Amino acid sequence: xxxxxxxxxxxxxxxxxxxxxxxxxxxxxxxxxxxxxxxxxxxxxxxxxxxxxxxxxxxxxxxxxxxxxxxxxxxxxxxxxxxxxxxxxxxxxxxxxxxxxxxxxxxxxxxxxxxxxxxxxxxxxxxxxxxxxxxxxxxxxxxxxxxxxxxxxxxxxxxxxxxxxxxxxxxxxxxxxxxxxxxxxxxxxxxxxxxxxxxxxxxxxxxxxxxxxxxxxxxxxxxxxxxxxxxxxx
Amino acid sequence: xxxxxxxxxxxxxxxxxxxxxxxxxxxxxxxxxxxxxxxxxxxxxxxxxxxxxxxxxxxxxxxxxxxxxxxxxxxxxxxxxxxxxxxxxxxxxxxxxxxxxxxxxxxxxxxxxxxxxxxxxxxxxxxxxxxxxxxxxxxxxxxxxxxxxxxxxxxxxxxxxxxxxxxxxxxxxxxxxxxxxxxxxxxxxxxxxxxxxxxxxxxxxxxxxxxxxxxxxxxxxxxxxxxxxxxxxxxxxxxxxxxxxxxxxxxxxxxxxxxxxxxxxxxxxxxxxxxxxxxxxxxxxxxxx
Lengths: 234, 289
Ligand SMILES: Nc1ncnc2c1ncn2[C@@H]1O[C@H](COP(=O)(O)OP(=O)(O)OP(=O)(O)O)[C@@H](O)[C@H]1O
Ligand SMILES: [Mg+2]
Hints:
The structure holds 2 protein chains of 2 kinds.
Chain A: E1 5-14, E2 17-27, E3 32-37, H1 43-51, E4 61-63, E5 66-67, H2 73-79, E6 81-84, H3 96-101, H4 115-121, H5 123-127, H6 138-150, E7 156-160, H7 168-175, H8 178-183, E8 187-191, H9 195-201, E9 204-209, E10 212-217, H10 224-232
Parallel strand pairs in A: 3-8, 3-9, 6-7, 7-8
Antiparallel strand pairs in A: 1-2, 1-4, 4-5, 9-10
Chain B: H1 2-32, H2 39-57, H3 61-87, H4 93-114, E1 130-134, E2 137-140, H5 141-163, H6 165-175, H7 177-182, H8 187-212, H9 220-234, H10 239-259, H11 264-278
Antiparallel strand pairs in B: 1-2
The structure holds adenosine-5'-triphosphate and magnesium ion.
Magnesium ion binds next to α1 of chain A.
């Protein structure tokens, strides 16, 4: 049995600068994995490399055992891996509803996630469906970004800091949607600065430090000291 | 008094032609941020395509243009897919250089094939037909058709951009190329479709260019300038703005010519400068740029 998603010795470069130095990760079907680490550790780079925005070797990333590391971003979403990018990155000239509808532009695979289903998950979006996205609150924008990614009915959902810049009560509202997403069989990779939040929802945690894996394990098996050391270095 | 009213009417009608010139340029810039320096020559090339098809197939230009539209769509698609997509990126210079080169190639190719002689699209009585409005004012049928076609093109482009999935993809790709790819959008294909559509609009413009006046292979750059001015006057990113920009330019030229025939072109450029001074982002800029 293959894991659903696997990275093997994943490296990533920005020009001459190496941001990742060989990351091994596995994600099983139905699992939620959290990636934590300090600013600049390479968390976003890792998700971008999986999503195809940074190209690497074909067999550095495997989906269901198939090498996808060299595929383009638009291919990878069709294969069932969707990214909620850091900073939401909504399309400003599209309305809320158009932002959601564009989510399945390239891949109309049948699945549980439809416009109605996303509105049921985040009802406030239905009220704001014809608004321009810059007019939304940060939390609402994040809901659109998640809904947009769900519209492609992904098997793997990659989320980059969905709590960034939001008040705790808003974060709780967004995370309240996670069980429903998981209930549809979607596996999730969460990049999260908020360690407490990450520990609460993740089955396993990977900690990055300066482009390398510094710690991995189940949340209940890890001690505060271990995490502190993995996060900030010895 | 009638003379000024006449100038206003003729100016608006001329504006329709400039709006048609500009709509294709506006579309290409809007979707792929491409400043197409070959646009004027492409209009002239399309006029020769219509001329050629009309002569070879014995068709009226209005029919020949319908034959030409699918051909130019494919040509535009291929040009973008094979050549122009390679030039787009962070650096603004390559697309400018390549379209400038294209402009030179088209102009010289046309000179070789068709010589420097003036040409005209012939469509019989409609060319000189006019509708009298009374008081000594009459509007030509072809100029009226030009304006109506410009309005129809703008309405259609707005429908495509704001009411269809491909239009959403155009806008999304223009907003954020990277995230558009995350939506499964193949931006190279989207750009190629946009260029095909741009060629279609350009060819409609070419029909009226050739019906209203003589053309030869060298008149492209001046058409580019008018198109460019109309787009900037109207404000980048708005098709209705482009129509307004064309009309402002047409009015300025026509009124300038009434004051002194030599002032026609100069008056258009002055109007362009005045708008830029008063509203540097054009009359109808897109809100979030
Ligand atoms: N486009 C880029 N060009 C060059 N270097 C980059 C680029 N993006 C990121 N980097 C560098 O790569 C390293 C990893 O960045 P990355 O954004 O992946 O970190 P991160 O863990 O997501 O940080 P944060 O918590 O701040 O989001 C950093 O040193 C960063 O400066
Ligand atoms: Mg990051």
